């Protein structure tokens, strides 16, 4: 992995890009008016572009980059602000002042909804295994402007933790978060946005195991929630109570803490 600037960088852009490369522990390469494809061919590497508006992550040979965008979260936020029900918030039992840990952060769509629901007195943290995705999403949550003030504030309140979910959970205290949440990549295909498709190119697939669930139960104060394809065997294998949704391609599974004591 290497990092470069936008096509026409100023001194500020160059300094920001160099600092980001140092922080990530990767090589900084001057752009020199080259295309991303030319740089990747010459360097034989994936590439992060530190642009003036956003960060982009290119897999070698791909034309479309991964970049942070709140995706469908903007539409969901507008519905929530209008007090329309959201099945995710219902499944996670989130309200003002509660705490939420997203073990599969991705583009942070669910964490943004959670942050709005728990408000400034609550806490939302998300775990992302890929260090480059974590860096880009963390930057995007801080700098993206959605045009919805409540959403922008919710994004800024999210804490991003880089690492594997199991390792992070092992180092957390008992009953640390009200809800611990998983949204693993579906094993069965569901039509996805371009943002999700490019994310999958860099996603780290952490095994979903009994140890992972047991650690999640220990860390959860109230419940563990799993979002997965409606045909997923994980719901049965790990004894989740399924919140079925008619005609929906995915369901939410719930494990209440009291039922696991």
Automatic annotation (TrEMBL):
A single GO molecular function term of this UniProt record: rRNA (guanine-N2-)-methyltransferase activity
Chain segments annotated as coiled-coil in the UniProt record: none
Pfam families referenced in this protein's UniProt entry, alphabetically: SAM_MT (PF04445)
SUPFAM superfamilies hit by this protein: S-adenosyl-L-methionine-dependent methyltransferases
Family annotation (Gene3D superfamilies): Vaccinia Virus protein VP39 (3.40.50.150)
PANTHER family in UniProt: RIBOSOMAL RNA SMALL SUBUNIT METHYLTRANSFERASE J (PTHR36112:SF1)
Name of this chain's protein: Protein-L-IsoD(D-D) O-methyltransferase
Lineage: Bacteria, Bacillati, Bacillota, Bacilli, Bacillales
């Amino acid at each position: 992995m290497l990092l470069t600037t936008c096509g026409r960088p100023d001194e500020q852009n160059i300094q920001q890009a160099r600092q980001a490369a140092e922080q990530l522990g990767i090589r900084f390469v001057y752009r020199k008016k080259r295309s991303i494809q030319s740089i990747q061919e010459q360097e034989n590497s994936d590439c992060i572009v530190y642009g003036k508006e956003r960060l982009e992550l290119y897999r070698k040979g791909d034309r479309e980059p991964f970049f942070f965008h709140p995706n469908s979260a903007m539409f969901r936020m507008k519905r929530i602000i209008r007090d329309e029900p959201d099945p995710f918030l219902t499944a996670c039992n989130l309200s003002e002042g509660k705490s939420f840990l997203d073990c599969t952060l991705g583009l942070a769509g669910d964490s943004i909804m959670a942050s709005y629901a728990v408000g400034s007195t609550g806490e939302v943290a998300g775990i992302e295994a890929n260090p480059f995705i974590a860096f880009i999403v963390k930057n995007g949550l801080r700098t993206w402007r959605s045009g919805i003030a409540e959403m922008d504030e919710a994004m800024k309140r999210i804490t991003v933790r880089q690492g594997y979910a199991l390792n992070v959970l092992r180092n957390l205290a008992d009953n640390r978060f009200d809800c611990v949440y998983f949204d693993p990549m579906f094993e069965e295909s569901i039509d996805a946005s371009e943002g999700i498709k490019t994310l999958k190119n860099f996603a780290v697939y952490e095994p979903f195991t009994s140890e992972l669930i047991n650690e999640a139960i220990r860390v959860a104060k109230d419940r563990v929630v799993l979002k997965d394809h409606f045909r997923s065997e994980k719901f049965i294998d790990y004894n989740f109570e399924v919140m079925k949704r008619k005609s929906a391609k995915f369901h939410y599974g719930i494990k209440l803490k009291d039922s696991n004591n």
